[in-house]
Amino acid sequence: MAVTTAERAATPTKRRKNAFSDGQGTLAAILLSPTLLVMFIVTGIPIVMSVTESFFRKNDGIDPVTGAVKSGTDFVGIQNFTDIFAHPATVAGVFGSMDRLINAFLNTTVFTIVCVILETILGVIMALIMAKAFRGRGIVRASILVPWAIPTIVSAMMWKLIFNTSGVANKVLGLADNPILWLADNKYSQWAIITADVWKTAPFIGLLTLAGLQTIPAEVYEAAKVDGANAWQTFTKITLPMVKPALVVAVLFRTLDTLRMFDLPYGMIGPNKYSVETLSMFAYQEAQQTRYGQAAAYSIFLFFYIVLVAFLFVKLLGADVIGDEELRAVNAQRKRMKELHKKQAKATKAVRTTITSGGSAS
Amino acid sequence: MASKHSLGRLALSVLATSAVLASAACGSSSSAAGSSSAPADDSWNTKGPINYVQGKDTSGNVKSIIDKWNAANPNEKVSLIELSESADEQRAAMIKNAESKGASNYDVLSVDVVWTAEFAANGYLAEMPNVDTSGYLKAAVDSGTYFNKLYAFPSTSDGAMLYYRKDLLTAAGINAAPKTWDEMKADCAAVKAKGVTIDCYGGQFQKYEGLTCNFAEMVNSAGGEFLSADGKPTVNSDKAVAGVKWAVDAFNDGTIPKAALTWKEEESRKAFQDGKLLFLRNWPYVYSLANKTDGSSSVAGKFGVAPIPGLTGPGVSTLGGHNMGISKFTKNKGTALAFVKWWNSAENQKANTIATSNAPTWVALYTDPELTSKFEYLPVLKSSIDNAKARPKAVKYGDVTLAIQDAAYSALNGQAAPKAAMDSLQTKLEGLVK
Fold first, then answer.
1. How large is the average pLDDT for residues B15-41?
2. Position with higher pLDDT, B243 vs B59
3. Are B379 and B307 in contact (CB under 8 A)?
4. Residue B152 forms part of a structural domain
């Protein structure tokens, strides 16, 4: 279907100015408008409101006679952002003393990098196990997916018990006599969070990778066998490249998710613990102190960070999030047209061309 | 021109973050405080149905009190709104109600003693007119007062007590509870000399509001003060630092087990009930739970209570409790005020104390024979509350308590020397309390 549409789109007719339009643009716009409207209401308006909010700050001067707080908010421009550097609120985290936002930024980044790497490795291993045909596969698949099905705040409570001073973790590690205080506020707290997060979300990567694995035809593996490839070669030359589109999307989702991490550290270690405080936790704490302007500013900081990471992902790893083959074909066509036009301009003589090739849809 | 493709990408990232942003955008109503003019007197006569708001009713007794009121006042019905068990969430819900000018219809609020300044200064609570507070605990009345005006009526109070293992102390030949920290340490040594394996002292040292309470007791019991009489921070005085130093040394020499750095009320209660602690600093609620004979407590009948010890004499407890405030945005202020007074009458407080074991604010109840026979700890609690000091009254209390917790946790964890921690706390408080 994709190919036929692309071909139709590529067939030029005299009525239309745009060679790629199939004349259904208006209909498409009408059909899409309810979705766009909902998107605008649920994401557009809050974002605009947050951005506006971030330029204001609550008045916090106190009347010396009545003790009343002066009412209203002041427009402070980008001061909520610049104060991060101009008036840093220094806290002591695992990475030394620094501004609370920078500390939260580093925590978020470290959590994301470490967690996603570990989750990807474990997730792929899980997927490979789940893809094998063996007796009791259903049970193995179900049990691998259980951690992912448990609500995060519940797993936070669970791991809190495990990492309790007199909990299982210290006993298993043989530290019952000189226990590690995982739930205090130190580098061990970070590892407790990483452990819990990996446990909880490696199955997610496993599941998406499994879906990718199942699209690889058996013939390729048979061919590899005939050619005498060993298991490692089969994995690196066939499985990995062919599962890459699915895997990259899974990793992208996990990355964006981990950047927003909140409930696990909040539920397990608690608020205001600088060794595990993430950006969203910090923004939440600021909102709790009724500093909505600052909270909005920090949320926007996180927002741009996530947008940047998502952008880099799509550019560098070529994550195909949309997965629209038709669109890709049209874009390829458009690119060819552009080059053609350039050539024509260079030749400076009008040559009437007809595009015959369809999209390079695979 | 944005192609459809890049729009899609944008939409994806937008979706990914909108949840975070939305949470910040929620509280965006800008001005709330309003001018705090004197209360218009006629507004205190309006009567009608109201809502009473408090945290989750764990005692199960609130409903029956309200039923009693409703039976007597059918035209001024009170409905109960229960909020979360978490104090932070209660506070957030009450602020939301006020910032939206009473959209949640909260009329009478159960206000933690440390919220009074913030709620009063921001104009969330109505100033109470001509209310007679004689006969109530002075400390409790003061905790509901801001700039010499009463914003919240004293309802329940709270003070810390020292729970001690009477059986073990008697076996070691000690007949009285320790009055100073050094005595307490000596008692521990004496008990351990008898071959008992037990940790000495425990409190609530996890990083949360309980740490502020415990830390304040360390400072105040050593003769230090957070704020001087004229409201200036004085946390790096020699006496205050001496209190902190004692606590730090106690962690270092094992008097307080390291695990206490992760304890809240319940964890420390459990350690005491399991027989792992000789001395425990905790609130009165522990008394009945630790005396349970259903097997949940291994120390039932084996412990006693005493005022908390200090550096050179009896310690100074941190004042806790809840007061009842009236929202500035409530329509039926007359009913609200009558309900608050009725709820906290001597008779109702007595019934409530029997049902919930909350500490009353009506002074005479502490010597009421019926109550003292049921709650043997009441005289101890009375002396604890009489000596108790309130936590700093600050509009930005959230920042103040976090600054205190930062200093306390870094000192107790050994990341900062006591003096250095208190110096940096002094600097922070000077910026916060003006």
1. 41
2. B243
3. no
4. yes
Task: Looking at the complex, report in whole angstroms how far the Cα of residue B21 sits from the nearest Cα belonging to chain A.
Answer: 6
Q: Which of B22, B23, B261 sits opposite A184 (nearest CB)?
A: B261
Query: Which one of 1.20.1440.230, 1.10.510.10, 1.10.3720.10, 1.10.645.10 gives the CATH number of domain A79-317?
Result: 1.10.3720.10
Confidence (pLDDT) at B236: 95
> Which of B7, B20, B122, B266 is the best residue to mutate to test the A interface, defined by the most A CB atoms within 10 Å of its own CB?
B20
The range of the structural domain enclosing residue B153 comes to 42-158+320-387
pLDDT tens profile B314-341: 999 999 999 999 999 999 999 999 999 9
Q: How long a stretch of residues is chain B?
A: 434
Kindly report the nearest CA distance between residue A20 and chain B, in angstroms: 13
In a domain, B417, yes or no: yes
Q: Is the pLDDT of residue B23 over 50?
A: no
A236 touches chain B (CB under 8 A): no
Average pLDDT over residues A286-302: 92
Under 8 Å CB pairs connecting chains A and B tally to: 164
- C-alpha closest to that of A323 among B81, B344, B9, B253: B9
Statement: residue B6 has pLDDT above 90: no
For A116, the token pair is 């996603």
Residue B32 lies in a domain: no
Stretch (H or E) spanning A97: strand A96-99
| B402 reaches A (C-beta below 8 A) | yes
Condensed to tens digits (0 to 9), the pLDDT of residues A73-117 reads 889 888 888 888 888 888 888 998 899 999 999 999 999 999 999
Cα A283 to Cα B68: distance, rounded to the nearest angstrom: 44
Closest by CA to A355, choosing from A346, A324, A335, is: A335
CA–CA gap between residue A88 and residue A84 (Å, rounded): 5
- Mean pLDDT score across all residues of chain B: 88
**Secondary structure element (H or E) that encloses residue B324, with its range:** strand B320-326
Task: Tell me what ipTM this predicted complex has.
Answer: 0.82
Contact check, Cβ <8 Å, A303/B21 = yes
Q: Are residues B118 and B228 in the same domain?
A: no
Q: Are strands B108-112 and B320-326 parallel, antiparallel or unpaired?
A: antiparallel
**Backbone dihedral region of B257: left (phi > 0), alpha (psi from -120 to 50 degrees) or beta?**
beta
Does position A45 have pLDDT exceeding 80, yes or no?
yes
Q: Which two tokens stand for residue A254?
A: 């996990």
pLDDT band at residue A345 using 50, 70 and 90 as cut-offs = confident
Decide if B416 is inside a domain.
Answer: yes
CB contact under 8 A, B395 and A73: no
CA distance A20 to A33: 21
* Whole-number percent of chain A with pLDDT over 90: 59
Chain B interface includes A61 (CB < 8 A):
no
Interface check A50 vs B, CB under 8 A: yes
* Pairing assessment for the beta strands A96-99 and B50-54 based on DSSP bridges: unpaired
Tell me the chain A residues in contact with residue B206 when contact means C-beta distances shorter than 8 Å.
183-184, 270
From A309, which residue of chain B is nearest by alpha-carbon distance?
A: B13
